[in-house]
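=== RUN LOG ===
request id: a7f3
mode: sequence -> structure
chains: 1
length: 230
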Amino acid sequence: MKRLTILLLTLCIGCGAAARAGEALPPKAHPDSAAWENLFAPDLSNATFPKDIWFLEDGALTASQDQNIWTQKEYENFMLDLEFKLGEAANSGVVVYCSDLKNWIPNSIEIQILDDAAPKWATAAPTWKCGGLFGRLAPAKPAVKKAGEWNRMTVACKGPMVFVLLNGALVTEADIRKWTDAKKNPDGSDIPPWLSKPMAGLATKGRIGLQGKHGGAPIWFRNVKIKPLD
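=== RESULT ===
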């Protein structure tokens, strides 16, 4: 009986490991996403955004103002793969798990996109750096390219777990259940006051959005693809 119990436990552990391996989390490399679904239709018919703000420019999605573009569909358990290019001193983001479009800032998680090398952001808090969770978790290492070059970002969200791969480097791995305070991050750093809800209490299903021309600096996105995770 003892041997049988040990065998069953071993099989269960093995099955769990196989399931985790099948999900490929955290991502070790950027996926081959060519056959994945486009997050937004070419004519943006499945998107929500202010009229005439978002448009295609040389095959890339960009905006003329600081307004977000959102999916009409809600997503949970997914992998998002995209490329982005920064204008000088750009400050943008990829927003996931948004449950309130009218008041999106405290009701979502933003993966920060920033021109880290710009003098404007030289004294920015670590949690403002590119690839981190804005205001909540700094990226593990700098990985963004200089303005004018294309970057690759893969975001994987599975329940409370959020992973960010930037230009081949795993820069963010977060369990949002650890963020139980609205004012302090688990490491003791301050959370901006406009992020007024503990991340642990946020929904793990919602709209996905891209931030527009924030702070006067342009941003471009292309090859924005999504794949559901089991």
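=== NOTES ===
The helical segments are 2-23.
The two ends are 34 Å apart (CA to CA).
=== END ===
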